[in-house]
Design brief:
Helices cover about 15% and strands about 25% of the residues. It is built from three helices and six strands. It has a six-stranded antiparallel sheet with strand order 1-6-2-3-4-5. Helix 2 packs across helix 3. It is globular, with a radius of gyration of 14 Å.
């Protein structure tokens, strides 16, 4: 049986930051897979989580803590072709006038695609409410949807 990135990510649902001086060792391990190598679980870790899942499955990864770095990995696909498994969604993060996908060092968020409707997209990701969870985001915040190489078309 082949496990997908989404399947593996689901196994981590509920992993959350530890308030105070302690830090969750798994989140710190995910951070260690990025060039940032953050030493606290309060440092944004959505990209570290996706890098961790990709590392475990030997999929391409960015090694970056920047969510928008995922806009350079895999193949760009339309949202309507996205499938749970290997597809990731990259979003704008924060309010106000956010730059588009061409600005890779701007704030963002990345997570594994779950489903969508006309208004929202559901994703499974890290650092969503300070834990691994499934959350909904407005479709207008999407910067890109990527199919990681190795995924079935």
């Amino acid at each position: 049986m082949n496990i997908t990135a989404y399947d593996l990510a689901r196994r981590y649902l509920g992993v959350e930051e530890i308030p105070g001086e302690e830090h969750h060792p798994l989140i710190l391990w995910w951070h260690s897979l990025t060039t940032l190598k953050a030493t606290a679980d309060e440092v944004p870790w959505c990209s570290a989580f996706v890098n961790g899942i990709a590392w475990e499955l030997d999929l391409p990864r960015t090694d970056s803590a920047a969510a928008r770095s995922w806009l350079r990995v895999g193949k760009e696909i339309p949202l309507d072709e996205a499938k749970p498994g290997f597809d990731i969604v990259v979003f704008k993060r924060g309010g106000g006038g956010q730059p588009g996908p061409e600005v890779l060092d701007a704030p963002g968020h990345v997570a594994f695609y779950s489903q969508h409707d006309n208004f929202f997209v559901d994703v499974l990701g890290g650092n969503q409410g300070n834990k691994v969870s499934i959350s909904s985001y407005e479709r207008g915040r999407i910067l890109g949807v990527r199919r990681l190489w190795g995924a079935a078309s």
